[in-house]
Design a protein that fits this description.
single chain, 344 residues, alpha+beta, Ribosomal Protein S8, Chain: A, domain 1, seven-stranded mixed β-sheet, 10 helices
């Protein structure tokens, strides 16, 4: 989204200031670099809610003790095609990227790998990790569950988190096919962004303390599941998929049991967040060359499909990569609060 209260800054300068802020807050070089890598992915593709605006929050959590400033990751191979990673309560981005790399290493041997993460924290945009695998030639799925802030279908209380599902696949000589979606109508970070920008929310995405839909970001107490008031059972079900993989399978925190990410006084104790990454090597199935030809043919047909108006059919990821190119040229927009914190 764009707003006249935002300012556009060069991506390299934005990245360096975010890294400097995290480092000044005590984060180790490796964990800070992972966080900035993930945040810059989000900021460059237009997912501002999960971009560099989170730098201040992470710095506060490092200062309060919730986040381990110098985490030591522990990788435990549990079977031929599976592993668990202990994130040591550090920045979640660090453990999540490690899960992708571990998954790739295993999938080179076994064709497919499942990697769970425990004792972790907020990882930002799940798509950053799906892309990290796809850029190395692997189909990659990444998910996490978060603290309860989304109603169930026909519910009137927070139950699931915004729980993203992200998938990416390699495309020869092109950026990856990418689907990165929250299972809520919108992520809570977008509500916070709208508060900063003093702009109204769309209809049918959020509710007040009584469960009544509202467009005022300052009145939002919970979000509606993807599909809204009529088809929200789909989003609620998909949110449960994220919880199944990232919490139930890893033995970590369930959505309603999380210490809140925002708004609470407890910033001392870790949240034991779980993530899950699945990595698939196309070379062990149809073969990498044939998969490359197949996905190119599929995407050509998809983009060439008939349209009802003078619009345009886009494949998952097309909008994000075009936005990345534009922001790399024109600068990355940041909100007033983030500009103040990073001293722009």
């Amino acid at each position: 989204m764009h707003n006249d209260k935002q300012i556009a800054v060069p991506k390299d300068e934005l990245s360096s200031r975010a890294l400097a802020a995290l480092t000044a807050a005590g984060a180790s070089t490796a964990s800070a670099e992972a966080a900035v890598r993930a945040m810059m992915h989000a900021s460059r593709v237009g997912v501002d809610s999960h971009g560099v605006r989170l730098t201040e929050h992470y710095c506060n959590m490092l200062g309060g003790g919730r986040l381990n400033r110098n985490p030591k990751l522990q990788v435990r191979r549990t079977a031929a095609a599976s592993a668990m990673i202990d994130g040591n309560d550090g920045l979640g981005h660090y453990a999540a990227y490690a899960a992708v790399e571990t998954g790739i290493e295993i999938a080179r041997e076994t064709g497919i790998a499942g990697v769970g993460v425990e004792h972790s924290s907020h990882l930002g945009a799940a798509g950053a990790y799906a892309v990290a695998g796809a850029e190395q030639g692997f189909i990659t799925f990444a998910t996490t569950n978060t603290d309860a802030m989304v109603t169930l279908f026909e519910g009137a209380q927070r139950f699931h988190g915004t729980n993203p599902l992200a998938f990416a696949a390699p495309v020869p000589d092109r950026r990856p096919w990418l689907l990165d979606m929250a299972t809520s109508s919108i992520p809570m970070n977008r509500v916070l962004l709208h508060r900063s920008l003093e702009s109204a929310l769309p209809q049918g995405v959020a509710a007040d303390a009584k469960g009544e839909p509202t467009t005022d970001p300052h009145k939002v107490e919970m979000l509606l599941p993807l599909g809204g008031e009529e088809y929200g059972y789909k989003g609620a079900g998909l949110a449960g998929v994220a919880t199944l993989f990232s919490a139930l399978l890893t033995g970590t925190t369930l959505d309603p049991d999380f210490i809140p990410m925002y708004g609470g006084d407890n910033i001392k104790y870790p949240r034991n967040m779980g993530h899950f990454v699945m990595v698939i090597d196309p070379g062990k199935f149809v073969g990498a060359p044939l998969f490359g030809l197949a996905i190119q043919s599929y995407l050509t047909a998809l983009r060439g499909a008939q349209i009802r108006t003078d619009g345009r059919v886009m494949a998952p990821g097309d909008r994000e990569w075009e936005e990345m190119d534009r922001r790399d040229r024109e600068g990355v927009p940041i909100d007033p609060d983030t500009a103040k914190f990073l001293r722009f």
